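Marked as duplicate of an earlier ticket. Keeping the data here for the record.
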Amino acid sequence: MLALLQQSGLLAIAFIFLFIWGACFGSFLNVVVYRLPAGLSLAHPPSRCPHCGHQLGARENIPVLGWLLLGGKCRWCKTPIAARYPLVETLMGLLCVATVVQFGLTLEAIAAFTLLFWLVALALIDYDTFTLPNPLTQSGLVLGLLFQMGLGFQANGFPGAIYGLMGGIGAAVLGLWLLDGIGVIGSAVLGQEAMGGGDPKLLAMIGAWLGWQNVLLTVILACALGTMIIGGAMGLGKHQRGQHLPFGPFLALGAISSLFWGDRLIELYLNTFLG
């Protein structure tokens, strides 16, 4: 489909449409990140300034452009609006484009973007509150198992769906046990809690979507990214030894990397060390 669009000269328009579509989901993701940890309704009241309570109009709610048109400030009380809102919208727009480039205009692309929505939401919530809400990890787990069943059914009918379900459950259990085990060992070595209770649930959700091989890859990438980022922050004096950092964002980054490049990274490893 993308090749056809390219030949017809409509590829740029298609990418713009995909970016806008993803940015709209990014706008809703901002609502989820702000309201879900606070126990607020995701539907009511409509979006408003958190400082003065002014309800945002249609023009102010346009993803990315709304923030730019307002100059990054509330039109009524002039309180600055965090730049993270348009940045998240931009991120989701770019991820939407990247997903279609990677998977094409397929149901697999829709599933991948759904996973990305959950991962980014959980990463930001964990960064803000040091929590990973059960409603998100549990619903993400269920959706991942349904996705595995769908893939299995598409390949081999009902037996394939059962096989896909069992594989998803196995990968989820592996993710849960793996981080639980790392947390127990880390706590014993450090003499303090080394892993939050939500991190194993997040990895279980990732396993349900991506399978057991990508669970292992996600943990390796998360630890490597965490070490590099924390080491760099310590070198710049932005992080103190012993200061607590949420692990959820690193797991999300590892899972996103596994989603887009997991097969190639695993193949590279096998060819390098076992080939």
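See parent ticket for discussion. The CA atoms of residues 232 and 238 lie 9 Å apart.
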